[in-house]
Automatic annotation (TrEMBL):
One of the Pfam families matching this protein, by short name: Lip_A_acyltrans
UniProt entry tagged with the keyword Hydrolase: no
Protein's name according to its UniProt entry: Lipid A biosynthesis (KDO) 2-(Lauroyl)-lipid IVA acyltransferase
GO BP of this protein: glycolipid biosynthetic process
Enzyme class: transferase
PANTHER family reported in the protein's UniProt record: LIPID A BIOSYNTHESIS LAUROYL ACYLTRANSFERASE, LIPID A BIOSYNTHESIS LAUROYLTRANSFERASE
Species of provenance: Klebsiella pneumoniae
Amino acid sequence: MPFVPRRKPNGMGYELISLTPERTPPLASAEVTAAWMNQIIEQCILMAPEQYMWLHRRFKTRPEGVPPRY
């Protein structure tokens, strides 16, 4: 069962929001599957956008000669 944790106000713990499980992800191509996954992630973020890791620097390392993203 997929779920999303959401922080309660004033540091009073978390609540778990259960999501409707998909029976089978679309596997027509890697792009279709990735788009499906991204749509689910977007729905989770929109439940509490203030709690998403907007400042997380995911791509810290870069290939040699490529300028940094941040």
